[in-house]
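Quick check before the chapter quiz. The format below is the same one you will see on the exam, so make sure you can read both the input and the output lines.
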Amino acid sequence: MAPADGADHSLLGLILQAGPVVKAVMGMLVLASVIGWAIMVEKAILLGRLQREVRLLSNAGDPTAANGEGLAARVQRAAAREWAEGRDHDESRGEYRERIERAMRETLTATMRRVQSGTAFLATTGAVGPFVGLFGTVWGIMGSFQGIAQMRDTSLAVVAPGIAEALLATAIGLFAAIPAVIGYNRIARRLAGLRADALAAIAATGARLSGRPPRGGNLARAAE
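Here is the expected output.
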């Protein structure tokens, strides 16, 4: 607990005067906040790129002409490979279409998984951050009461600095948790929307390809 006289009651002063346990809690929360913001910035950039790729996929033409290494091109190439194999004699058009779409969905899922990686840290920070800050607060208040017992003085001037240092840990926990929760929810919503748009484009491509035989392939196998 900080001394009553000559104490620095500024925000930085409260942090520097806090006990080692409370300082460690504050440090972990600040680090979690910095990592969380870095993840949110990275995901904003990745989601912007993914949105452009999904738009390209929705407006794509002939899958066999796809080139490049973006998501749209990879999904189209996966569809073109299955389409080029044609239909088996015992395979219905619906099964043929499902096979084409499954190849595209597998490529999409792999990309979505890479984009989603790291968001669990945001969810964890949002859920645990306030409780970690509360632990620091409880520990700090316990130290303040111990100081009161040693000094045998319960005046507000003696109690207030130590309690302020302790409550600062809860404030930092909320500062780390609230943006993490908001960021996680926004990322999850955008991913869900982009996934739905991509799946709609995949379904349209599968329906288009399954209705015509591959060029230069076995027309009898692909016919109805």
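If your answer matched, good. The chain has one domain: 11-222.
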